[in-house]
Amino acid sequence: MGISRDNFHGLVLAVSSSIFIGSSFIVKKKGLKKAGDTGTRAGEGGYSYLYEPWWWAGMVTMILGEVANFAAYAFAPAILVTPLGALSIIFSAVLAHFILKEKLHIFGVLGCVLCVVGSTTIVLHAPQERNIVSVREVWHLATEPGFLVYAALAVIAVSALIFYAVPRYGQTHLIVYVGICSLMGSLTVMSVKAVSIALKLSFSGMNQFVYFQTWIFTIIVITCCLLQINYLNKDWDSQNASQIATELCGFITILSGTFLLHRTKDMGNTTSKPDEEAPVFGNTNNRTPETAT
Description:
By secondary structure, the chain is mostly helical. The chain has 10 helices and no strands. The C terminus is likely disordered.
């Protein structure tokens, strides 16, 4: 299956994003280490890293990566962009080996190879994205009972981790902080996709910011990102950078990928009826603005 022009643009942006984000893991880790030498460590609740230039350099690098990732969602299907984030594992693992002196063992090398093979397979078989004419189409998908149940369970799980698990196991169990960030990340994928579509359509002359749904998605993105940044800093301060990147990308890919694959599994079976509902990420262009309401 060939790669469309939009998918190619999304591919380039997603890979660029992985390079920036993977590098930012290492730069921020270096900043957290330096900050921990002069003040209260982030893992112990301190915020001395806010005065560390290395940490801010890592933040700027991460922001650049997230901007590229954000733009990628406007061009390519989320099922293509999200798994490509796993490429950041390779960059963070290699840089951690040389800069942070964290040993990259044979199984780590094998994992990097599997990431490349898996990402290549997804790129070559990614579905064509349908022509979405309104953020309200994404809202319709996000408010289906199945996703609402998942979102509610994710919020409950995150709350339990924050208020129960973090005080007791945050310093000793990697899964606590990774679980919080991964669950939030799975919700962020849908919202980022919606906001990126809103920007793309608005720039083309169809203002999507007149809809309240766009602002709800924007608030979700900001809230989830702030939570992830806070708990990732705590995790990076006390754990191996390449290990965190591996588990975080794995969890986010599994959680968000499960939902996205479910929504695209029947994309080849859509009919030609103009009024029939189809998955937002399917391959059909017969949707009109009237049918999106």
